[in-house]
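Q: Could you fold this chain for me?
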Amino acid sequence: MKHILITGVSSGIGYTTAKLFLEKGFFVFGSVRKQKDADELQKELGGNFLPLIFDVVNEAAIKQAVKIVEGKLGEGVGLECLVNNAGVSVNGPLAYISIEEFSNQLDINVLGVLRVTQAFLPLLGFNNELPKGRIVNISSGSGRVTRPFMAPYSASKYAVEALSDGFRRELLDFGIEVTVIEPGPIKSEIWSKAKADAETQVNKYKDTPYEKIYDHMDKAVQGMEGIALDASKVSNLIYGIVAGEKKKTRYLVAPKKWLFWLAIHVFPDKFLDKMFQKQFKKLVEEQ
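A: Sure. Below is the predicted structure, expressed as C-alpha cells.
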C-alpha cells in the first residue's frame, strides 16, 4: 500500500484530496488542528486514514507527528507524497494591516511549509535508502498576481513559489520531485470566513481612505465565490502528479485560466494597475 501525507484536511482541497486518495487505495495521513475534527474525520474516512493533530506553526507537534508516521509506516517504508496544503488567508490594506497579522500570515503559509517539509524529508527518501517520494505545494494564482488588499496573502504565496523552486533544484540529486499547484478561487468553507471577515473589516477600516471600498467588499467576495471551481479539479490534478501522469513543475487551476495566464506573462504592470483600479472604482459606484 502507498502512503501520502496531506496537511489541512478538515475542509476544501485537503479534504477532497484525502477522500480521492483513499478511493484510489492509498493510506492517508492528514493533519488537522483540533481533536474534534480528527475524531469526525477518522469516523468518516475509515481505517486507512490516520489523523495527525498539529498546527504547522508548532515545531514540537510536527516532530511528534513524524514519530507517529514512522511508527505506522514501519522499517523500509516511506511516503509516496507530501502535500503541503494547510494555510490561511489574511487580507487588508498594507497602509493599515498590523505587523502581527502579516507575520502570522507568513508564519503559517511560508514557515509552515518549511517546517513540515524539513521534518518529513527523510520519509521521502532524502539522504537515505528509502524509496523516493515527491512534494506537492499548494500555492495560489495570487502567488503570481497580486490583487489590491490581498498583498499579505499574495506575499506568502509568492514565497511558497520561491521555496518550491529552491527545494526542487536542491533535491534534484536526491530524486525527490517538487510540483507547485496554483489554484484560483476554489469552492470551500473559506468563502464563509471571507464574508465574515469582510463584515468585520468594515469597522476595522472605517475612517480610513479605504472605508468606501470595505463597505462593499462583501460584494467582491461574492463575485469571486460565484466563479469558484470545485475542489476536485485540484485533487484530481494532485493524483495525476503522484501517478506520474502530470510532469510539469507548476499547474494553474483557475476559472478564466487564459486571463490569469495573460496577467502573469503578458500584461504590463501598469495595465494591471489600471485594471484593478477600475474594478474597485466600479465596485463602489455600483452600490
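A (continued): Residues 3-188+230-255 form a domain with the Rossmann fold fold (CATH 3.40.50.720).
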